[in-house]
Specification:
The structure holds two protein chains of two kinds. Chain A is of the alpha+beta class. Chain A contains eight helices and nine strands. In chain A, β8 and β9 form a beta hairpin. Chain A is elongated and about 105 Å long. The two termini of chain A are 39 Å apart. Chain B is an all-alpha fold. Chain B has one domain. Chain B has three helices and one strand, in the order ααβα. At the A-B interface, β2 and α6 of A face α2, β1 and α3 of B. β2 of chain A pairs antiparallel with β1 of chain B, so a sheet runs across the interface.
Chain lengths: 221, 75
């Protein structure tokens, strides 16, 4: 009789431990605070001031991701190159033939264009956001000024998670892509060039386990 | 006769001015769209210190308007 009682206690202990392990708090304890919580961050766990329009009251943002900052290198170099161009404008005959006031306006127009180009490219990186919450995956695609798309899938709809890191740059800087197959309307979510892809993959799997556990316990929201 | 006078008045510089003003006008519209898109995005996703990006958008639009006015009045 005492043995049965002990076994029941043991089962209760194991269940309690499982619950603890699979709760959001446990994830918080496991992964802790990763990344800096600032405006230009590309990887931060449990960010303080991040929320999105369709977020539920109890929904908690677990990961906030952007592409690795190194992906911006091309347009930054291009912007610097374009900034230096007005110094050689004078060797371009149609420009050289213009009066001084025209040259001034053309040069100012050029700087304005470079500023706009830089801002548009920056926005392309800044607003291309991937968010993981305890309930779903949110993918904000901001391809250009005229196109944006927000896709979401519930964690329970995630079927498969693939982590891919290939190439010298990705290996050196430690970033890669994550492909999430879902049963939602959007069948595949692509988290492209995100830092620490292995950690992200692990966290997604933890969230799937958490969701399954909630389903078993009948705590599904 | 008047039509001929108009054609005589058209110079290389006047064509350049019209083209510049048109280009800068189109850019000002583009800058305004950019500013509105930033406002929409920062409303959709709130982040820490995201007012900085809104200021950049406003600066870009302000810059576009200033250059457009310069093209209209200086040239």
């Amino acid at each position: 009789m005492a043995e049965i009682y002990k076994a029941q206690e043991k089962v209760k202990e194991v269940v309690a431990k499982m619950k603890q392990n699979l709760s959001v708090e446990a994830i918080k304890n496991t992964i802790g605070k990763i990344g800096r919580d600032n405006l230009f961050t590309s990887f931060v766990s449990f960010p303080n001031k991040v929320c999105f329009e369709t977020q539920n009251d109890e929904e908690q943002v677990i990961l906030f991701l952007r592409q690795h900052p190194i992906v911006n290198l091309t347009w930054i170099l291009m912007s610097i190159f374009m900034l230096t161009l007005p110094s050689v404008f004078i060797f371009f005959p149609p420009y050289a033939s213009l009066p001084a006031n025209y040259q001034f306006v053309v040069t100012m127009g050029w700087y304005m264009f470079v500023f706009g180009y830089t801002l548009a490219k920056f926005m392309g990186w800044f607003f291309n956001i991937y968010i993981l919450t305890d309930e779903r995956v949110v993918d904000v695609d901001f391809t250009n000024i005229f196109f944006r798309k927000v896709s979401t899938a519930k964690t329970e709809e995630i079927q498969d998670v693939n982590v891919q890191s290939s190439g010298a740059l990705e290996t050196f800087f430690g970033y890669g892509s994550i492909f999430i197959q879902t049963a939602a309307e959007v069948s595949q979510f692509e988290f492209l060039s995100v830092p620490n892809p292995d950690k992200v993959g692990k966290i997604i799997n933890q969230l799937i386990d958490l969701e399954e556990q909630e389903k078993i316990e009948g705590r599904v929201k | 006769m008047d039509v001929m006078r108009i054609f005589d008045a058209i110079t290389f510089l006047s064509i350049v001015k019209v083209m510049l003003v048109m280009l800068l006008g189109v850019y000002a519209v583009f800058a305004m769209l950019m500013m509105r898109q930033i406002a929409a995005m920062t409303k959709a996703i709130t982040m820490r210190d995201d007012y900085i990006i809104r200021i950049l958008g406003i600066l870009n639009f302000g810059f576009a308007i200033v250059v457009l006015l310069m093209a209209i009045f200086i040239l």
